[in-house]
Design goal:
The complex is a heterodimer of chains A (about 180) and B (about 675). With about 180 residues, chain A is of the alpha/beta class. Chain A is built from five helices and seven strands. In chain A, strands 2-1-5-4-3-6-7 form a seven-stranded mixed beta sheet. Helix content of chain B is about 65%, strand content about 10%. The chains are: A alpha/beta (about 180), B alpha+beta (about 675).
């Protein structure tokens, strides 16, 4: 197979073209801060949902469970390494009374239950979203992610990545306190 | 005053990097030996001053000089000296300085050890290496200067990340950077070769030791990181598919492809164009990894403080380096001579397959890593990226690669026959199926995945042995001849055998630790016990005490086997008052057959403690496999060094002139 000189040049220039596209994507990506919620979802009500159980003999987690409360909704999965790193801190927060609810995302409920049994269960209620429908509606891009939801069921904030002491003290705790004061 | 000296060293290093670049790129054009050797001296100088700046930063950390911003932000007087020094590279600014130091080390090493290289090639390589140094020194000086002062001077530092107070911090990042940044040499050689024009793949012979050195370091660095995660995070995970881990895996995968394709260029004068491209892409992955970690574009557990200006700066470097390199490739590659023709069923053919699979695997890891970014652009969610994604994409590609790994080294160069090959490969197939069936039977057919993994591992391990059998003609020639052949086997071939053996051990460990692991949890008070996989785990007591800057609670647990053997375990929880945070120090009993891993959890209100225990069969081979692989690389490197020089060079040229093959006995894999 013999290529013409022009075709050869086109072939050998292809990598730089592909790279150009990638560089554009990276540039575009850099303009958006992935740790902030796309503004369209802030202030929007949470989609209605009723998730099946994770724990054995449990009812699961539905929107009625959080009505009228200021809560954190944590998206996790037994397959997610960063969630396991976040887990001990969630346990600490839960022990201190933080209202943490869980969405076990893209996970077999049995695997999820096993993880909670092993590492402890920080959730007031936890439901399984194996198909990822709710996560899709919430605009989840990865796990862990944690949403702050106010009394009226509106999304107020999204934390992308693990909750650390810095994130909790600097952002989430003040926000929850403020929302609970009814502002 | 001392920080200002450090800052001044950085300026001097930048000046010298500029001189190195200019002299290295202009020298060969003017045929000026003086400029060519100036680029060498400048490379030594750049190394000297970056090294000095780094030493100064170490000193500032060791003496807890809180008038320097990064020291105040990342250190603390209560830290043991060991960890104060390690804190030098435990944050963004210091680790970037380490990055540039490694870059300068490689530059100076090429200037020193490359004395037998053609003068113009060496000058151009140093020129390109110097240019990368210029970019990154500018990056440090403008966006990440570690010598910025703080006023008023705080009395105490802001502390540290307790997770980083582990021996892992001392060895893991420097090894990783040696690998990551070491691939800059592949880039520099490839770009220098493209500037220089057709030279019949000569550049590869000089580049290969550096590429190997980078590959060895990266292999060790990744292995150390995995071991660290395993012991520190308290639940026995060793790989998370985290963006930052992937960022180190991608250059490793491409670097592995590169080590193999470079072999084809060196020995068979084929695949030169591809190897040039691969060299540029490998370093691109290193740069991309740096970009991902520093820009905060992807969320990761490894994240450094995020600053968009830094991301933009590194993106510009990435565009200039990779864009420039690829454009040069695009213009120059059509002019390069076509390689030798080879049959698909040949050693070259198998190495092409190796490269195709490795590049495809890199592609899937790349997609998985950047997927969240692509979602943001398309606004759709189809799959989640986590272990399920990689199980679906990585494994189906890795298995054929591993299967083919045994086949390749047993094939002849240029072309081979199916019949001859089957007789060579037979014992491997036999052993693999035997282990598969035995494991299947031993687990009563309940763990077929484990049987498949172990069968694959056996295939790889026997395959590595078969290279030796074939080279030494064991069983074919008289025994004395075989012994003589084994003794005469080139170091590089030993390297290949050992490296392939390492992969086999790694697969064995992965199989055991992922498919046959057991886990359990119990609430225990001193004196109580619980059964776990045929053993009795007994908590003897709980003690507490003080470390240098933490308080600890330690459980003393005996694991008693039915035969009465007692294994003592002492898992800890540490509390760091300065940071108000806790870490887990798991206790692991490691044996060749498997690890018993015990972690101490919280105390429940009735006074009992949550204790988690895991059994990870064969897990130790994951890391031993990694180190064995690196050892193979070291042997190949030693072999390469002792073989290079004028004699080997002459024979390569002569072989090409006569159009003959390379004698089989000499062929390295």
């Amino acid at each position: 197979m013999k290529l013409s000189r022009g075709a050869m040049l086109a072939t050998s220039l292809a990598p730089v073209g592909v790279f150009g596209v990638l560089a554009a994507v990276l540039y575009f990506g850099l303009q958006q801060d992935p740790s902030t919620l796309p503004s369209v979802l802030i202030g929007k009500p949470t989609p209605s949902f009723a998730l099946g159980p994770v724990r054995e003999g449990d009812r699961g987690f539905s929107q009625d469970d959080i009505r009228g409360k200021v809560v954190l909704v944590n998206v996790w999965g037994s397959w997610c390494g960063a969630c396991k790193m976040e887990h001990p801190y969630l346990m600490e927060l839960a022990a201190g009374g933080a209202p943490i609810y869980g969405i076990d995302w893209k996970d077999d409920p049995a695997d999820g239950a096993r993880t909670l049994k092993m590492l402890g269960d920080p959730y007031v209620k936890v439901g399984n979203d194996q198909a990822g429908r709710l996560a899709l509606d919430l605009g989840v891009t990865g796990a862990p992610e944690t949403f702050v939801i106010d009394r009226t069921g509106r999304i107020r904030y999204k934390q992308v990545g693990p909750i650390t002491p810095e994130v909790w003290q600097g952002k989430l705790a003040p926000m929850i306190a403020q929302l609970e004061r009814g502002q | 005053m001392i920080p200002e000296i450090g800052r001044f060293c950085l300026y001097l290093a930048l000046g010298l990097a500029l001189v190195q670049t200019a002299a290295g790129l202009i020298g060969p054009l003017r045929a000026s030996s003086r400029l060519n050797s100036l680029s060498q001296s400048a490379a030594f100088g750049q190394f000297l001053f970056v090294g000095l700046a780094f030493a100064i930063l170490v000193r500032l950390f060791a003496t807890s000089d809180f008038s320097v911003m990064v020291v105040a932000a990342n250190s603390h007087t209560t830290k043991p000296l060991f960890y104060k020094i390690a804190a030098t590279w435990g944050h963004h600014e210091g680790s970037m300085l380490l990055w540039v130091l490694v870059l300068a080390v490689f530059g100076a090493a090429i200037a020193y050890f490359g004395r037998n290289m053609p003068e113009t090639l060496r000058a151009r390589v140093l020129g390109v290496q110097g240019l990368i140094g210029v970019f990154f020194l500018l990056f440090i000086i403008f966006t990440s200067n570690p010598f910025v002062r703080l006023f008023p001077v705080p009395l105490e530092g802001e502390g540290f990340n307790p997770l980083l107070q582990d021996p892992g911090i001392v060895s893991h990042p420097p090894m990783l950077y040696l690998g990551y940044v070491g691939f800059s040499t592949a880039f520099s050689f490839a770009v220098a070769a493209l500037i220089e024009g057709p030279a019949g793949g000569l550049w590869v012979r000089y580049a290969r030791p550096w590429i190997l050195a980078a590959w060895i370091s990266l292999t060790i660095g990744i292995t150390l990181g995995s071991l660290w995660a395993y012991s520190v995070l308290g639940w026995g995970g060793f790989w998370f598919w985290d963006p930052v881990e992937n960022a180190s895996l991608m250059p490793w995968l491409l670097g592995t492809a590169l080590v193999h394709s470079a072999l084809v260029v060196e020995r068979r004068f084929s695949l030169e164009r591809w190897t040039l491209l691969l060299s540029i892409l490998t370093f691109t992955m290193s740069l991309l990894g740096t970009f991902v970690v520093r820009s905060g574009i992807l969320t990761s557990v490894h994240a450094f403080a995020v600053d968009p200006a830094r991301g933009t700066f590194i993106l510009i470097i990435l565009i200039l380096a990779t864009g420039g390199g690829l454009a040069l490739y695009g213009l120059r590659a059509p002019g390069l001579p076509s390689g030798r023709v080879f049959g698909l069923f040949s050693r070259e053919g198998s190495l092409v397959l190796n490269n195709i699979l490795l590049v495809t695997i890199t592609g899937t890891v790349f997609l998985g890593t950047f997927y969240p970014l692509f979602i943001e652009l398309t606004g759709k969610d189809k799959i989640s990226v986590g272990v399920p994604y990689y199980a679906l994409t990585f494994v189906p590609l890795a298995v054929p690669l591993l299967a083919a790994m045994v086949i390749g080294p047993l094939l002849l160069w240029r072309r081979d026959s199916l019949k001859g090959w089957v007789t060579r490969i037979g014992p491997g197939l036999f052993a693999a199926f035997a282990v598969l069936i035995l494991t299947g039977a031993a687990t009563h057919g309940r763990n077929l995945l484990l049987a498949l993994w172990l069968g694959l591992a056996t295939w790889l391990i026997t395959g590595a042995g078969l290279i030796l059998v074939r080279r030494a003609r064991i069983g074919q020639a008289p025994f004395a001849d075989s012994v003589r052949l084994v003794k005469a086997l080139p170091m590089a071939t030993w390297g290949a055998i050992i490296a392939h053996l390492g992969i086999g051990l790694l697969v064995c460990g992965l199989g055991g630790a992922t498919t046959a692991k057991e886990e359990g949890v119990a609430l225990l008070a001193p004196g109580q016990s619980t059964p776990f996989i045929g053993r009795e785990l007994r908590m003897k007591d709980i003690s507490s005490g003080k470390g240098p800057n933490f308080d600890y609670v330690r459980a003393s647990i005996d694991a008693v086997s039915p035969g009465g053997d007692v294994v003592h375990l002492a898992p800890e929880r540490r509390f760091y008052p300065e940071r108000q945070s806790e870490t887990t120090k798991a206790s692991v009993r490691e044996t060749p057959l498997g690890n018993l891993y015990v972690a101490l959890g919280d105390q429940v209100p009735d006074g009992r403690w949550t204790v988690r225990f895991y059994s990870h069969p064969l897990a130790i081979w994951i890391w031993l496999g990694g180190f064995v692989m690196a050892l193979g690389g070291i042997l190949a490197l030693v072999g390469n060094r002792t073989q290079s020089g004028p004699r080997a060079g002459d024979s390569a040229v002569e072989v090409r002139a006569q159009g003959r093959g390379v004698p089989e006995g000499e062929a390295a894999v």
